[in-house]
Design brief:
Blueprint: H1 2-21, E1 24-39, E2 52-67, E3 70-81, E4 97-106, E5 111-118, E6 140-149, E7 152-160, E8 178-187, E9 191-206, E10 211-228, E11 231-245, E12 250-265, E13 270-279, E14 322-333, E15 336-346, E16 363-377, E17 380-391, H2 393-399, E18 408-416, E19 419-424
Antiparallel strand pairs: 1-2, 1-18, 1-19, 2-3, 3-4, 4-5, 5-6, 6-7, 7-8, 8-9, 9-10, 10-11, 11-12, 12-13, 13-14, 14-15, 15-16, 16-17, 17-18
Length: 425
């Protein structure tokens, strides 16, 4: 009840404000429960453990306000697992979180600034994305300045993080300590190209020297798209250099990423794609202290390298990298969309057996994803999928578990996203 009262007060205040200034208000809702059956999700199923089933749910309410050159957005959400509190609980485990809270101002037709908690999402979301699959999503406390004119856009962003309000420096490890980035995009008739340069600072405490230090990691790269008649393609190339923060020190990094995706639309309903991704890694027998594994820092990684999330979804960091050869067949007609996506995974660097110390085959396994969605109306979407992992002995070495088990995953999700209220004056 307390939650409902709070939301009501915010909504009433916003409506009153709009009435006073005679502008615009939109209130949107999203309810998104998702069932999952996990039997080898993220890692191979262990012999002495059992599969699990769960339901997670996102409940999000968004208030968008506009007044002349000013815009503001506040988004509240609750993320829960069904049953994480008792049916008679007087309080919620996660409570209400602030997903977005930003204010923007248009200086003129070209220049805009946005400040506050916001989603940073660019290109195909491989490096910076909203991670919408995760019920909590991803947003940053940041300042953003944008310049848009004709067919180009330049975004300059910065962030500075602290755990709490203090009078002196204290250690910070919740996220990056500071962030600066520049993103430039130029659109052409049938194509576009983007450039990204990002500097991320991670703080650590140097106990030996008794001081706080920051390791700065730079990610730079280019991403391009082409859409010519029925043929479409996209490609990306990124490098990482600088330093990685360690518990009491920092170490140099040199890593890289490359990807190419080619597609053809055979009919209005059917299209096919093939692609390849390479994320550099480090050989397990490499004694060099330098880091060589590429990390897609804030990307929507669930959308890449298989939906079973074996790679780069909170895992596989500073490891042997990845090679992913994949295809995608999509059928889209009326209110239905069906997709079949097989992946062939291999490590980018060498893996060795911890028992025999012999070099293992780079092949990690094959994953097959099948998804389907039905859009009942503009506000109501039902989607689901099944996935199967055929893992190798090398995958077992990396992930543990048993590659001979029936490792699979299934899910079904309902998304209801209506616009509750619109006011204009």
């Amino acid at each position: 009840m307390k939650v409902n009262i709070k939301l009501f007060v915010v909504a009433a205040f916003a409506i009153t404000t709009v009435s006073s200034f005679g502008q615009e208000l939109e209130v949107n809702l999203q309810l998104r429960p998702r069932f999952e059956y996990r039997n080898g999700y993220k890692e191979l199923m262990k012999d002495d453990l059992y599969p699990t089933s769960l339901v997670s749910q996102r409940s999000r309410m968004n208030f968008f306000y506009k007044q002349d050159k000013l815009k503001a957005n506040i988004s509240f959400q609750n993320v829960r697992i069904w049953g994480d509190v008792a049916t008679t609980s007087a309080s919620d485990k996660n409570g209400i979180a602030l997903f977005e809270s930003w204010l923007s101002y248009d200086f003129n037709e070209s220049w805009t600034t946005k400040i506050g908690r916001q989603v940073l999402s660019y290109d195909n979301q491989r490096i910076l994305g909203g991670i919408d699959w995760a019920q909590q999503g991803q947003s940053h406390d940041a300042l953003l300045v944008s310049n848009k004119k004709n067919n180009y856009q330049l975004d300059l962003g910065a962030a500075l993080n602290n755990t709490t309000e203090t009078l002196y420096e204290v250690a910070y490890s919740t996220n990056y300590k500071n962030l600066q980035f520049a993103w430039f995009n130029q659109k052409f008739t049938n194509s576009s190209i983007s450039f990204l340069a990002m500097n991320t600072g991670y703080q650590f405490e140097n106990v030996v020297e008794n001081k706080f230090q920051v390791a700065y990691l730079q990610t730079v790269g280019v991403y391009g798209k082409l859409n010519a008649s029925n043929f479409f393609a996209d490609a990306g190339l990124y490098l990482q250099t600088g330093e990685v923060a360690l518990p009491n020190d920092k170490e140099a990094i040199s890593a890289y990423y490359g990807a190419l995706n080619l597609g053809y639309k055979f009919t209005e309903s059917f299209k096919a794609e093939v692609g390849f991704e390479y994320l550099s890694g480090k050989d397990q027998d490499d004694s060099d202290a330098k880091f060589k594994a590429f990390t897609p820092l804030f990307g929507t990684n669930h959308g890449f390298n298989g939906f079973m999330d074996y790679f780069y979804v909170g895992n596989h960091k500073n490891s042997v990298g990845l090679q992913d050869i994949y295809a995608k067949l999509t059928f889209d007609k009326n209110k239905w969309q069906v997709a079949l996506i097989p992946h062939l995974f291999s490590s980018a660097a060498s893996v060795y057996s911890p028992i025999t110390l012999e070099k293992q085959d780079n092949y990690l396994g094959t994953e097959i994803d099948l998804t389907a969605s039905y859009k009942a109306d503009k506000n109501f979407l039902i989607s689901g999928g099944v996935s199967k992992m055929f893992a190798s002995n090398t995958m077992e070495t990396l992930k543990g578990g048993d590659n001979t088990n029936n490792n699979n995953w299934a899910w079904i999700m309902v998304s209801f996203s209506p616009q509750l209220f619109t006011y204009k004056k």
